[in-house]
């Protein structure tokens, strides 16, 4: 297994983001980022009347200084599906975490499956997943003429969003699945997509996830050779930061953080303070050689998108104080990149 603490960049092409120990690297220079989540983009783009919302969010996010967008590359079965059935795709959706659908397809095909967690172990289901990965990576963008696997606009892929396994809390099942699936991604950076929960590899770390058992192992799965950086969904604690730097030796990204309007003590000021605290940590730790290298706020929407509002909605044009918090971080990070 490669020693990821060595300051050796992964062998990608010019223009691709790489890892160099715990920092990210772009064309030989440090790469820090502020990003955002808009998981809904592919679904909304299927409706011609709504496609302007995608453009609006990109325009507003870029103006605020957000340089990276995290979105879904799957929509399996149901309305506006990308993958209608195993291996059958709607090209119109291409122009614009659903593990249970894969299991249901296998069941419909006569396969014996016990439950949704067979997603990680059943050979037929894993074949469906690998076929989907191949289809997405080799698909040629109709606008640019570049296959997604060759496009440096894509920084990274996640194996899935928030993997969980209720039949095996040790983390073994998901880790074996990660080891089996990660080699199918061979050019861009790759993350598992985990929330950050600990497993059996370092049992005492479980005390930092009180009451949570989701069958993942933050340490072991992020040590898989093909995994380039760790992810956490929330505000990382000291253990995640130190473990990423000293044990895993790879960058850490908070791929989902935010404040819900449904929280009893929510206010716009509270949310802005929380976002600023995350940004300050990213800046300070990056400046001092830490592993925390970026954050993606959850989530940015356009106006009139209440269907997708889970309480975390940010409307950049209507919330100038939040816009200001993001812009201040952009200025600090841009200056820091020139000194690292």
UniProtKB/TrEMBL annotation:
<dbReference type="Pfam" id="PF26410">
    <property type="entry name" value="GH5_mannosidase"/>
</dbReference>
<dbReference type="InterPro" id="IPR001547">
    <property type="entry name" value="Glyco_hydro_5"/>
</dbReference>
<dbReference type="GO" id="GO:0016985">
    <property type="term" value="F:mannan endo-1,4-beta-mannosidase activity"/>
</dbReference>
<keyword id="KW-0378">Hydrolase</keyword>
<comment type="similarity">
    <text>Belongs to the glycosyl hydrolase 5 (cellulase A) family.</text>
</comment>
<dbReference type="InterPro" id="IPR045053">
    <property type="entry name" value="MAN-like"/>
</dbReference>
<dbReference type="InterPro" id="IPR017853">
    <property type="entry name" value="GH"/>
</dbReference>
<keyword id="KW-0326">Glycosidase</keyword>
<protein>
    <recommendedName>
        <fullName>mannan endo-1,4-beta-mannosidase</fullName>
        <ecNumber>3.2.1.78</ecNumber>
    </recommendedName>
</protein>
<feature type="domain" description="Glycoside hydrolase family 5">
    <location>
        <begin position="109"/>
        <end position="298"/>
    </location>
</feature>
